[in-house]
Amino acid sequence: MKRPVEVKFYDGILAEARRAWIVPDQQQGIALKLDEDVPAQVSDADFYFAYPDMAYIGGVGGRKPIIELPEERRIEFLSKAPHWLRIKYKDIYHAIWEFERSPILIFFSMIIVISAVIIILKWGIPYSAKQLAKLLPEQTLVEVGNRTEQQLIAQTQPSTLPAEQQTRLKTLYEQKIAVGKPAKIIFRQGGSSMGMNAAAIPNNTIIVTDELVKISGTDEEVLAVLAHEQGHLVQKHSM
């Protein structure tokens, strides 16, 4: 005979809980005895409840586990539910309840969540964006690039670099850097909008500002910048 387990019993009529004791009823359910004192045994129980008629609700925080019963009756446990209670998902609910009350487990859970967020932000999103960019139709890239190019042209001024210098840099770029599909190179005065900068645009265009060319000591330094931007175009980073 299992030792009786003390519970609070709501009979569906009175709002106040009554002290009661439960024991298993031949593995088919539970027998409940209303009594203020611990009974020697739960015989001639006041209520019998079958497992199929029970709805187990696990504890949350400071709230103890309960069993919802027919006719708005309810059993509330004073601590965890007894191990012999054969209600579906009881052990899972109990494990969750124990988990959320453990400071150590909560701490490690927070570490795991924070680590997951960092991984997603640092590697997951960039990787997903890169894969998505590869799936975009070429026409979409061209349309987006054309709009971006128009905006940058509107925000900058025509280049004042000598035509010979522009031609030389473009030729060196095509000979040493461009592979198969050279980008369109546009030189512009960056001014306050772009300044000393270069930008790779998804319509296979690279805009380089006069300020960047002038601060570069040699053509090789400008070519290094163009090689960097070419890499963005090849990998579709500009999306």
TrEMBL record:
InterPro entries: Peptidase_M48 (IPR001915). GO terms for molecular function: metal ion binding; metalloendopeptidase activity. The chain crosses the membrane at residues 104-125. Its cofactor is Zn(2+). GO terms for biological process: proteolysis. Binds 1 zinc ion per subunit. The keyword Aminoacyl-tRNA synthetase does not apply. It comes from Acinetobacter lwoffii NIPH 478. It comes from the Bacteria. Residues 194-238 form the Peptidase M48 domain. This is Peptidase M48 domain-containing protein. Keywords: Hydrolase, Membrane, Metal-binding, Metalloprotease, Protease, Transmembrane, Transmembrane helix, Zinc. Pfam families: Peptidase_M48 (PF01435). Belongs to the peptidase M48 family. The keyword Glycosyltransferase does not apply.
